[in-house]
Structure formats: C-alpha cells, structure tokens
Design brief:
The chain is of the alpha/beta class. It is built from 14 helices and 24 strands. The strands form six sheets. A four-stranded mixed β-sheet has the order 22-23-1-24. A four-stranded mixed β-sheet has the order 2-15-17-16, covered by helices on one side. Strand 20 and strand 21 form a beta hairpin. About 50% of the residues are buried. The structure holds ligand EPZ. Ligand EPZ binds next to helix 1, helix 5, helix 6 and helix 12. The site of ligand EPZ has 22 residues, from helix 1, helix 5, helix 6 and helix 12.
Length: about 425
C-alpha cells in the first residue's frame, strides 16, 4: 500500500488545476443507465472511484469509453444486460448504490447490494428505499441485497418529503422520477451543487425538472430520455482542500477552474480564520499573510459548511492562535483523523459530536494512518506544516478522490513524494 513522505515547512507558491467533481461525476455516470443513447461527460476526473463506477456500469452491459486523449471525456452507452450490482463492487464504493434508481426506472427491476457502513458512519439507505416505495417500487431485502421491482406499468410520481436532505437519496429519487409516470415532488431535497449538475444533465437528456438549486424539485416523468453531452462542475472540495494546504503553509496559490460560488460557507469560515480567498474569471487565489486564529464551525447540509471539508479545516486550525470548536452534524464517526493529528502534536479533544482544538505554534512530523478520503487530505495538510518528516500511510484512500495530489503539491514547492509499498 502506497504512502506519502512529506517534509513540512515550505510555503506553497504556484498554481494548481482543479479537476471535475468526483461527487458529480459518479451520479452523472449512473444517469447513463437512463437512456439507450450515448451520454457524453466532459471534465471527468481521473480517479479510482471513477474507474470503479466504470467497471460497475460495464458489468451492467453499459460501456464506458474514453472519448478524448486525456481520458477526461467519457462516452457511456449500451444495452443493459444485467440488473445486479454485486457486493464486491458496492462495498468498495458506496456511490454504486446510485444505480438502483436508474435501473428500476429504465428496466423495472434491480438487485443491488446494500453498501454497508464505512469509516465515517453507518450510512443507511432507508431514505432511498422509502422514496422508491412511494413511487410504487416493491422492495425486499435478502442476503444483504436490495431486490426492487417496479409495477408492470412502471414507477409512478409521488410527493416525497425527505426527513433529511440526503445527497444520495435525492440523486437516486431524482433519476427514478425522470422516467416515472406523472409528477414527482422531492421536498427537503439536498441542494449541493452536484445535485444541480445532475438535474441539468437530466434536463439535457430530455427530463422535465423545475426547482433546480432549491430544496424542492418537481419532476414531470417522460417516457424516454435521449443522449446528451454534459460537463462536470469543478470539484469544490478539492478546491477547499488545497486552500487549506496553502493557508497552513503561509503561501499563496492559484486554483485554476476553482469556483467560489460553490464554496460559500467555506470561504466565509476560512476568512474568519484569517485566510484570503478571491475569485477572478479563471479561478481562485488563496493566500494567508497574517496569523491564523481559532474559530467555531458546524458541518451542515449545503449551503452550510460541508462535512467533506471538516478534516482539512481541523488540520489547519491545529496551528491557529486560540481554540476552535468543531461540531460534526452529518456523520456520527467522522473524527478518525483526530488521534492521528494528536500524534503530530495537535491538542484536540473529542466530546460526542464536537471536538475542541487548542491551537499550538507548531506540529511535528510523525507516521500517521489515513482512515478515509477526506481525513487523508487533512493529514497531508498537517504534514505540510509540521517540522520533520510525516509519513501518511494507506494513501489508497486519497487516490479515490484526489487526482495526483502529490504532483500538484510538489509543483507548488511542497517536499512530498509517493513511496510505493
Ligand atoms: C454524499 O454521500 C457524498 N458522497 C459524501 O462525500 C458526502 O459526505 C455526503 O454526501 C454529505 O454531503 C457522494 O456524493 C458520492 P447523505 P451520501 O445521504 O449521499 C444519513 C466524500 O468524501 N442518511 O447526504 O451517502 C447518513 O447516515 C464523500 O466525497 C440516512 O440516514 O450522504 C448521513 O448521516 C464522503 N438515510 C447523512 O444522512 C439515508 O437513506 C448524510 O448522508 C441516507 C442518508
């Protein structure tokens, strides 16, 4: 298993190109199941999770082909020959569960493995299943699989009020509703930018959706969807992650293609901590010329502060002046990076859903263990500022969601290298 070796202390200076959003590309790839035509996606990031989704679609009979030399444009299409999503793929990548809605809507049946839990929480899928049942699906569970069947005349529209604005449930139900008979209203829907990217993709394919960007989506089902060419939005979490890396080193970097509007709460929170982020037409510039100070923040559904940025900002606040209180409201176990940061000299105490971070003037390098995708980047942020050497183990977590992170950071002056195990 590869690891990263980092020697901290160098201010980052230079430019990094932000790729397409992993959490938009995955549902948009699943949307390829909704049509027999070709769906072409541009600005797709080159990530392990994208390759996993490609293999999943391929075993459904739907080919995912490179449509550009750099591999960032994918052409998705083909007849669905298998409606089962197997455990060995779904357990590796929970977003595989997003094939359930499209398969059910297009074919009328699906057998999809339950994803199971992961490092950050139990991750139930009850909201996905209840919403599909409201649309007429008959759902049974056996041997760790969801067996779903649509009525003979197909799924029908429904008024679904989500008790929590679940991103995945919104995406599965939005895709199912696009081909359902009649009108579906999704109330208390997730509002993350990736949802709007998916909704706009479906509209480009012929779906009839209103309320895009709001917490109430109304979908008039259509009989068929056709092919389209759609661009993936820039990755807001990658943008925020590199912003934290620049800030902790006291440097200044330009994030090409970065989009500040998708990062509202992150920009405000970072500014409170002493980090300047400005947008111009080509991207975002991040710098920190003065001291960092402790702040309090809570993670919330969009447009609140995103849980996917919690570990990275916590790492930054480890070296801020004063204390910070961080409350993780989305996942029940998303503090796995805390003991690792404390091994580097951070002073963090966790009480239930909250962590108190007492700032310390500096961190010291140590061998640490990555536990999940975003925690991995948090440990890198800490290593970039720590004195001495930091070894981040199990960077396979990182490779799922960050393209060439070590190369992008090294190009800005970081002393970081990948050590093949
Ligand atoms: C998506 O996961 C993202 N993944 C996550 O990013 C992100 O952290 C999360 O949304 C929140 O923003 C992708 O888009 C592929 P949820 P998802 O359904 O859809 C509870 C990353 O690092 N819940 O909004 O699984 C759930 O337990 C990943 O890129 C139910 O109770 O998130 C959690 O507490 C990590 N029942 C909360 O809602 C359900 O049926 C948020 O889950 C569904 C969710």
């Amino acid at each position: 298993m590869d690891k990263f070796r980092i020697r901290g202390g160098r201010p980052l200076e230079g430019a990094i190109t932000i790729g397409g959003a992993k959490n938009a590309a995955l549902p948009l790839m699943a949307a390829g199941l909704l049509t027999a035509d070709r769906l072409v996606l541009a600005n797709v990031p080159l990530l392990d999770d994208i390759r996993t989704m490609g293999s999943l679609l391929a075993q459904h009979g739907v080919a995912v082909e490179k449509a550009s030399n750099d591999g960032r444009t994918l052409s998705i299409g083909g007849p669905i020959t298998n409606t089962e999503a197997p455990y060995d793929i779904v357990r590796k990548m929970r977003a595989s569960f997003l094939v359930l809605g499209p398969l059910l809507a297009r074919i009328g049946e699906a057998r999809v493995s339950l994803p199971g839990g992961c490092a950050i929480g139990a991750r139930p899928v009850d909201l996905h299943l209840k919403g599909l049942e409201q649309m007429g699906a008959e759902i049974t569970l056996d041997a760790g699989y969801v067996n779903a069947k649509a009525p003979n005349q197909g799924l029908h529209g429904a008024t679904i009020v989500l008790p929590f604005p679940s991103v995945g449930a919104t995406e599965n139900l939005l895709m199912a509703a696009a081909l359902a008979d009649g009108q579906t209203t999704l109330a208390n829907a997730a509002r993350e930018p990736e949802i709007a990217n998916l909704a706009e993709c479906l509209v480009a394919m012929g779906a009839r959706i209103t309320g895009i960007g709001s917490d109430t989506l109304t979908i008039e089902g259509v009989k068929k969807l056709h092919g389209a060419t759609v661009a993936i939005i820039p990755d807001r979490i990658e943008t925020g992650s590199y912003a934290c890396a620049a800030a902790i080193t006291g440097g200044s970097i330009r994030l090409n293609n970065g989009c500040i509007t998708h990062l509202g709460a992150v920009v405000r929170t970072l500014a409170e901590a002493g980090v300047d982020i400005t947008q111009d037409k080509g991207g975002v510039t991040v710098s920190r010329r003065n001291g960092l100070h402790g702040i309090d923040f809570i993670t919330e559904p969009y447009p609140g502060f995103p849980t996917d940025m919690q570990a990275q900002l916590m790492a930054l606040l480890c070296v801020a002046e004063g204390a910070s209180m961080i409350t993780e409201n989305i996942f029940e176990d998303r503090f796995m990076h805390v003991p690792e940061l404390n091994r580097m000299g951070a002073r963090i105490n966790v009480h239930g859903a909250s962590a108190i971070v007492r700032g310390t003037p500096h961190l010291s390098g140590a061998p640490v263990m990555a536990s999940d995708l975003r925690a991995s980047f948090g440990l890198i942020v800490a290593g970039l500022a720590a004195s001495g050497e930091t070894i981040v183990n199990r960077v396979y977590h990182l490779d799922r969601g960050y393209e060439a992170a070590e190369e992008k950071l090294a190009a800005c002056g970081a002393n970081i290298e990948r050590v093949a195990a």
